[in-house]
Amino acid sequence: MRMPGQGRETGGWSLAATPVADGVRLELGLADLGGAPATAIITLDRSEARAFARALLAAAGDAAERTFTPPPERD
Question: Which residue blocks in 6-69 are alpha helix, DSSP H?
Fold first, then answer.
């Protein structure tokens, strides 16, 4: 899976997930981290990958709740 973020609105990032023997290898690429490109590579076993995915989903849900607040109540 690759999610490109080549536009200026994202700052330029990519995320790639590759299956490995006992889990998954994640590569997070940042086009500009302190003025230089950077790549973080993390290899997780299946249970770690599931925990990581749950944490990402929780963070995304929290961000969505903060971004999309309920409309004000009408009188």
Answer: 46-67
